[in-house]
Design a protein that fits this description.
Blueprint lengths: L1 H23 L3 H13 L3 H10 L6 H21 L12 H13 L5 E9 L2 H13 L4 E6 L6 H15 L3 E7 L9 H9 L2 E5 L7 H4 L8 E4 L3 E5 L21 E5 L2 H17 L19 E8 L7 H12 L3 E5 L6 H13 L3 E7 L5 H15 L4 E5 L7 E4 L3 E5 L5 H6 L2 E7 L1 H13 L9 H5 L3 H13 L4
Helix pairs in contact: 1-2, 1-3, 2-3, 4-10, 5-11, 6-7, 11-12, 13-17
Length: about 475
């Protein structure tokens, strides 16, 4: 009797899941992976699908906020189109094609007149951020996927104490999943100072099913509307001192002055309105007129589950497709999916020099084996792959030594479809070449993956790669 009830329940739940997958699925590979998962793993598979597989962008949470978000974007977009002299028009076909795509899928224009400083270590990055905060006169806007207990977060707290007393407004956003320790007393101490702190997509019982699979992965700091930071660094001491076998984490960040800061501010304002539910922050004081601060043309791109298009994926595909000489990709989670993987193979076969740089050891075994499962197909078409001995969290793509993207977007389904991400694209040969030099320093002969040697890996490793590849569409 018990066995009969179990099997009836299993069949009913499994059929319900498969019907939902068929009705709501968007990609065949993902539909197949989820269908096999719910069949192979009784009850656990359907539960995971219900939590992580259903596209809730169509559902209540996103519908309720969509009109407000679009209105906010429309208002700021009109300002952007209102004759700003700093909006850059390209003569180069490649640059114009990429910039046009981003203006249409992410609503951000390319701005000339930016000063951009590359920050290549935790010490450099946070020293620059702390210096900017110390100089704040009006407001500090800060947004991170991870705010983690430690000396860095304590330093932010000390600076905020001082700046609040000086009358500086401080607003702070953090992801409730990535910053899971920011609860209770840990976040209350910031609120007690006068900091307006909110979690984005908070994980609560009432909205768990609508928020758990959608994370805000952005890293943004804007000070007084005229200096901004974005890139890959989170607020975590692992960037300052080793806390595991991975050693000190490496990453890249950008300090931006000039008109492109306005775009970073727009991203923050939208997210803050969504999380805080209290202010639109469209006043002139939060969007001051910014004078030219350098020679770099910069364009911000943002994407999320509320976006009409998968803008980050489209950005990466466009950069790969317009490259004529070289493509350099550094990413800790290179799990691109078949469309992007095929674009890279086509580029390599057509004579473009493709170089991939990833960590040899990952903080996620599933991600590591998923990455390795793509290597043979890339090596066979002539792509070069190098494995860094340290753990680099950088998310960089450089094409033709003239256009470079630095930001939070990984080469995986999560960044393409489920996470809120932000990248900065620099149309600057000097900056692109400088970052490519840093990239090339890690592409040593002893770090290079040889195709014939890679084919000799153990059958067990190949099995784990195949298993990880099976689950990669679900990551």
């Amino acid at each position: 009797m018990v066995n009969t009830i179990f099997w009836l329940a299993y069949v009913a739940v499994t059929l319900w899941s498969i019907v939902n997958i068929i009705f709501n699925g968007s990609r065949a590979t993902k539909m197949i992976s989820w269908s096999l998962s719910v069949i192979i793993f009784p009850f656990l598979g359907p539960l995971l699908y219900y939590l992580f597989g259903i596209n809730r962008r169509k559902f209540k949470l996103f519908k309720l906020k969509q009109n407000e978000k679009r209105k906010l974007f429309s208002e700021t977009y009109k300002e952007l189109e209102g004759g700003e002299q700093s909006v850059h028009e390209f003569e180069d076909y490649k640059q114009d094609k990429l910039a046009s795509l981003i203006r249409k899928n992410s609503y951000f224009a390319p701005y000339k007149g930016n000063g951009v400083a590359l920050l290549n270590s935790g010490e450099e990055t946070f020293n620059a951020i702390f210096k900017a905060i110390e100089g704040a006169k009006k407001f500090i806007h800060l947004q991170y996927y991870i705010l983690e207990d430690g000396m860095l977060l304590d330093r932010f707290y000390e600076l905020f104490q001082k700046k609040v007393k000086e009358g500086v407004e401080i607003r702070m956003l953090y992801d409730s999943f990535g910053s899971n320790s920011m609860r209770g007393k840990r976040v209350q101490r910031f609120k007690d100072l006068g900091v307006k702190a909110y979690s984005t997509m908070p994980i609560r019982f009432g909205n768990l099913l609508f928020t758990l699979n959608y994370r805000n992965h952005r890293k943004i700091v804007v000070v007084d509307g005229n200096i901004g930071f974005t890139g890959g660094f989170n607020v975590s001491d692992k960037y300052m001192k080793p806390d595991s076998d991975l050693g000190i984490w490496q990453d890249l960040h950008l300090q931006i002055t000039g008109p492109a800061v306005n775009s970073l501010q727009r991203v923050f304002v939208k997210d803050y309105h969504f999380a805080g539910k209290e202010e639109l922050l469209l006043q002139d004081k939060y969007f001051p007129k910014i004078e030219s601060a350098g020679e770099t043309v910069a364009q911000i791109i943002s994407s999320g589950p509320d976006s009409r298009y998968p803008a980050i994926m489209q950005q990466y595909l466009a950069m790969i497709n317009i490259a004529t000489k070289s493509i350099c990709i550094a990413n800790p989670y290179f799990i691109p999916g078949e469309p992007v993987l095929e674009a890279i193979r086509i580029a390599a076969l057509s004579g473009v020099e493709v170089t991939l740089l990833t960590p040899k050891i990952s903080d996620s075994l599933l991600a590591q084996y998923s990455m390795f499962s793509t290597f043979e197909a890339l090596l066979e078409v002539g792509a070069k792959i190098y494995l860094r001995p340290d753990f680099s969290h950088s998310k960089v793509i450089i094409i033709d030594s003239e256009i470079v993207s630095v930001g939070s977007g990984n080469f995986d389904y999560r960044s393409f479809e489920h996470n809120f991400e932000t990248n900065a694209i620099l149309y600057d040969k000097d900056k692109a070449s400088h970052i490519e030099e840093l990239f090339t320093k890690h592409c040593t002969e002893d770090a290079k993956v040889d195709l014939e040697d890679f084919k000799k890996r153990s059958p067990f490793s190949k099995f784990l790669e195949g298993l990880a590849k099976f689950f990669s569409p679900l990551l």
